[in-house]
Amino acid sequence: MASILKSVFGPSTAGAESKPSGAETVQKLSNRVSSSVNLDDRRDALRAIKGMSRQYRREVGNICLPLLFQAIRNDISDGECVGYAVESILNVLSSDEGEERTDELLLGVDYAEQILKDPENLVLLLRLLEEFDFQVRHPTVRLLTSLLCLKMVDIQEAVLSSPMGISKIMDLLSAKQEVIRNDAILLLSYLTRSNSQIQKIVAFESAFERLMLIISDEGYSDGSIIVEDCITVMQNLLRGNSSNQAFYREANQVQSLVPFFDFKLSSSLKWSNQKTSNVLAMLLLVRCLVAPSNSQQNVSACQKVMHQCRLLEFLCMFMFASGVPTAVLVESINTVAEVVRGNFVNQQFFDTVETPSTPPRSGILTILMCMVNEKQPLPLRLAALYCFQSYLYKNEVGQSKVINTLLPSSTETTVSAGQVLCAGIFGNDSLSIWMTAMSLAAALNSSQKPQLLRVQLSMQGKGQVTLLQQCSDVLVNMPDLKPLSRVGLLVLLCTWLTDCTAAVTSFLDNPVNIPYLTGMIEHHYNNDTDQIIGGLCATLIGICLVYNDGSSSGYSPETLREIITRRINQDSFTQSFTQLSSTEFFIQASKQPQIQAGSVNQIFFDYPFTVLFRQVSNAIQRALDPSIETNGGAEGVPTSSQNHLISQSQLSASFEEHSSVVQQYKDLLQEQDRQIIELRNKCQELERGRNGNDTQSLLSNSAPGTNGELNKELVSLREASLSHSRLQESLRQELGQKNAELERMREKCEALQLQLSQQSSSEDVSRLRQEVEQLRSDNEALLTEKTYLDTQLNQQLTLSAIAPPISSNEGETQEKLRQLSEKNLGLENERKNLLTRLAEYEARLTDYGSLEVKIKELVSKNESLEKEQEDLLVLLADNDSKLRKYREMLKNNNIPLSASDDDDDDDDDDDSDDEDI
Amino acid sequence: MSYSYLFKYIIIGDTGVGKSCLLLQFTDKRFQPVHDLTIGVEFGARMINIDGKQIKLQIWDTAGQESFRSITRSYYRGAAGALLVYDITRRETFEHLTSWLDDARQHSSSNMVIMLIGNKSDLDAKRDVKFEEGLAFAQEHGLVFMETSAKTAANVEEAFINTAKEVYKKIQDGVFDITNEANGIKLGPQHQGGGGGGQRAASADPNKAQGGGGGCC
């Protein structure tokens, strides 16, 4: 480099004192690039700029950036020139490794934006990808990756709108030089992030086959980080992209995964870090295909193929193999859970899986024992629960099998699932109690619920006790029971008693139960936990009310309603159970079937309960409304206006709760949005830092003077950046889910609003009719008054024609007119109130599904009423304008007027109005 | 299910002409009158039989809106066949055909088979483009032409299958370079076993394609 400088500045610059500044040198070099007519000269200058572009990044960036692109265009046939220019741009974008200042990091973004300002620049870079010259192609791939890191969305859009942009990138996968191919995979992993259009085009360009080919060439799970990168791209293509999921399956790609998992598992197998990462990434890819959030059609089709091609079998082997790293074990259990979830054939297969031990043991039993084992790490126990729940999800055969092992007739001699569950639920470990309660709840369906009542336990000192009795005994008699255990038992009881009158009767026959529950609701809430327990108790009472056939000796539905309305106070009852669904724990659990919890403290609910709760909370609200309850058979149409009003007020309350929930979501969303922005900024900073570091690490090969501390810093920075990326990704996903949830909520709101608006028309018709009647009579009075006024006016006009106006008389008339218009105004207000109230009713939520036919009739009636109302409005407006006209005439009062004509008009209007009604 | 060949198709044309409905009718044999706008591209696949050969069709349904044009362009290169659809009840969709055709010709391989489809033939009362006009346009531009109804399924099978026949014929004639997957044609795993040996096209060399194409199916 020194020699180049010398050649540029000649001998006069040799003296240290007169050495020019970096900026000056860069300026001179750039002049040479732009003005020299000699190609060799331009090439030398570009080489020199490249040499300076790290140390004098800012100078090169500020002075040369547009020039460098121009240089590429001018000397595009000279690979060396283009290569130097591209590398210089790459260096300018990457922040210096020594710099940790934010402005340095932001500089790259500024330069990236500058580059993007001219759309031709990106077109040019994509064109360079077609060059076969390594020294052009390689830095161009890296430059595009670097640009994507800095301005992901903009570059994605630009690539998408550039003709064949993606095809050109895809062609790099067939590059002869492995380093280009590998960097292209890295580029794709950024390019395909959360842009479904790009994902689809990349898949269309046979990405799955080509990446899988690379994976197999690299030796599947034994391969290098390239394998992991390939899987990352495939995950991006599949995650939440139903079109690609269908394509993947149709192209028989699921089958091609089998070799990846087909290796001899043994305790002596060496699991390198890279192998662990590769297998983890591939397990996540499998889950992308069967995620419960995917379309049902895609999930079940994939599940079917996964069983047929033995992928499920291989996954199950991972679960029970020894020497498998915990992270892989956890993830393979979660994967198996989602591959069997809701698919009966796969669930039946899972039922037959046995451990490779001697003697072999049932896989399901092993999973349960792992779940209740306090010594196992939390993620493993949670995965075990998820797997067990997924095995039982929509699986009546499996459910009855589990319940049967609990029944007295069971002759099992070895340890059974039932025994493990019973031991867990009445053990000492609160997490085990909660997990076994959730597991038992998962085994319950409408036919198993009465069966479970037959379960007898032999308790020390008590003899034979039913399971139900024991559950409530523990709740009532153990004040020191941990909140998590209490929640678990309450959730189990809620699930059990829902839609099972026999269980309700049995529960209510124990006289201590209801007083315990009411006591818990009345308990003063000190914290979230108390609030949750109170809410669950309220829900349980509500369930006892809804599914009560009156056969309990102690508590009939009426008694329970009495307790709720009189003793507890209906408002606080409703509040305590609806608040449950707005707690962070509930919202967290309702997102997806898999429990996401980093620590035990974050666990209270599982997904199935959140579904159940949403169902029963409606039923409970309806059961508490006497009008709806008593008229339940009569299609819920209130017969008396009093009942009607009660139901309206409750509906209103329920709507307010719903909107408050929505509001809470919004707040939460906003908060998360803020956090994400914060994190994104931070992450961007870090990523920029990492970028710089990457460059540095490449640099350090040629300049081996880098000290160890710097490397350490680099590693930690990269790690931090990675974890932030992950955090950001997960937050982004969370936000996506939140948004989806909100969207669902809004859709639900809208649907219900629609329903209500139809329905409210039925409920309001009578009242609306009354109001309209009222309006009409008011209007009639108004008309009478107007007629009277007209007569008077007439008289006055006659009078005024012959004599000067009597001001007092005029004043009086004007006063009357004013009163009339006031009255008009009042009527208008009343109408507005009416409309507002109507709108209120429309906005309320409730579900009276069977009303539709009647509703349609009523809707049309309502429409005609609305038409009448409109007619009335027109009439009122008419009156108004006439009054104004009269007033004007009075003012001018020398214009003769045939008042009788106007009267006739009014009469006509009035008549037609009457006919409509 | 093994197959001899795999063809990639795309369906193009103005928004609302019934592209997604044609695909749904062909793959699922059902008609969905209310359909959201296609956002980007949806996917469907089906196996058909030509001359006793199993042929797998992979069909990408595109979005017709102008704003998605640049995205649609990315699909031309890798497609063996394209169904260019217009709506016989909306003349403007017929008038836009030239622009679609220009786009397709510019970005696809020259051998891509383009089939012109006048859809919604069940709505004859509302017809705005005569059959003869469609035919004339097709003849002028060297396209195969058909009128279809995604609603009644009339000619839907034929449209997809005739396109496949054209592609197949081009393979037989050695027009397509089947070793290049970018043409939207892939040899099926059957060919690896030598099952397809008798029908090999003169100029194509399936042996060469086996390494790349047969690897992961």
TrEMBL record, chain A:
InterPro entries: ARM-like, ARM-type_fold, P115_Arm_rpt, Uso1_p115_C, Vesicle_P115, Vesicle_Uso1_P115_head
Cellular compartments annotated: Cytoplasm; Endomembrane system; Golgi apparatus
Domain (Uso1/p115-like vesicle tethering protein C-terminal): residue spans on this chain: 812-915
An individual GO BP term: endoplasmic reticulum to Golgi vesicle-mediated transport
Domain Vesicle tethering protein Uso1/P115-like head, first and last residues per copy: 363-624
Name of the featured protein: General vesicular transport factor p115
Coiled-coil parts of chain: 728-785, 810-875
Entry keyword set: Coiled coil, Cytoplasm, Golgi apparatus, Membrane, Repeat
Biased composition range(s): Acidic residues: 900-917
Residue ranges with Polar residues bias: 638-649, 692-709
Topological category with respect to the lipid bilayer: Peripheral membrane protein
An annotated GO cellular component: ER to Golgi transport vesicle membrane
Region (Disordered): 630-649, 687-709, 892-917
Gene from which the chain derives: 100632619
Keyword Glycoprotein carried by entry: no
From TrEMBL, chain B:
Entry keyword Transmembrane: no
Compartments it resides in: Endomembrane system; Golgi apparatus
Keywords in alphabetical order: ER-Golgi transport, Golgi apparatus, GTP-binding, Lipoprotein, Membrane, Nucleotide-binding, Prenylation, Protein transport, Transport
GO term, biological process aspect, one: vesicle-mediated transport
UniProt keyword annotation of Signal present: no
Membrane-topology descriptor: Lipid-anchor
Residue ranges, annotated region (Disordered): 186-217
InterPro entries: P-loop_NTPase, Rab_GTPases_membrane_traffic, Small_GTP-bd, Small_GTPase
Broad class of where this protein is predominantly found: membrane
Gene Ontology cellular component terms for the protein in this record: Golgi apparatus
Any Pfam family the entry gives: Ras
Any GO molecular function: GTPase activity
Entry's family note: Belongs to the small GTPase superfamily. Rab family.
This protein's name: Uncharacterized protein
Classification of source organism: Eukaryota, Metazoa, Porifera, Demospongiae, Heteroscleromorpha
